[in-house]
Amino acid sequence: MHKVLFVCIHNSARSQMAEAYLKTFGGPEFEVESAGFEPTSINPLVVEVMLEDGIDLSANDTQSVFELFQKGRVFTHVVTVCDDSQESKCPIYPGMTHRLHLPFPDPGHLTGSHEEQLEQTRKIRDSIKASIEEFIAWARNDAPLGDAWTIKGSKARS
């Protein structure tokens, strides 16, 4: 069983999309959650572009990575999807086998018209979706991770 946690700053966009795609494509061997350093609410742009892909995040809640840590939650894979400067804030979870980092732009910092922001959010969504497909293959020992991934710590293979 792969117990996966996706982490970003607010748990409002990138980690929510990654969690949703792993739940959608991963099958029963994956238990997945997402959390943030400073949880807020789900980004409406993300809700909109995920609905375009048939996934409804409108009822999702955000949660704190530190609360999960304090509750003693155990994850075999912790994946940070925030930018490089924030990645180091992620706590080390007991029992973690793999710590991975895959940075994506924050949809909360996009500028331009609503349509321009939607288009940029779609690109982020599509990149996350492709990366989750890579992650699933890697976790199943079927393929290596792509060049965008950074393995921060591993007790087993890389």
Report what the structure shows.
By secondary structure, the chain is α/β, with parallel strands linked by helices. It is built from five helices and five strands. Helix 1 packs across helix 5 (114-139) and helix 2 (44-52) crosses helix 5. It starts with a strand and ends with a strand.
Q: Over the alpha carbons, how many angstroms does the gyration radius reach? A: 15 Å
| Poorly predicted spans | none
Q: Count of helices? A: 5
Number of strands: 5
Span of the ends, CA to CA: 18 Å
Quaternary status of these chains? single chain
Task: State the share of residues found in helices, binned by percent.
Answer: 25-40%
Briefly note the structural class of the backbone: alpha/beta
Strand order of the largest sheet: 2-1-3-4-5
**Percent strand:** 15-25%
The average pLDDT score comes to: 88
Largest sheet: 5 strands, mixed
SSE pattern: EHEHHEHEHE
* Net shape: globular
List the helices and strands and how they pair.
Elements: E1 2-8, H1 14-25, E2 30-36, H2 44-52, H3 65-70, E3 77-80, H4 84-87, E4 98-101, H5 114-139, E5 150-154
Parallel strand pairs: 1-2, 1-3, 3-4
Antiparallel strand pairs: 4-5
Sum this structure up briefly.
By secondary structure, the chain is α/β, with parallel strands linked by helices. The protein has helices at 14-25, 44-52, 65-70, 84-87, 114-139; strands at 2-8, 30-36, 77-80, 98-101, 150-154. It contains five helices and five strands, in the order βαβααβαβαβ.
What attributes characterize this protein structure?
single chain; 158 residues; alpha/beta; five-stranded mixed β-sheet; 5 helices; 36% helix
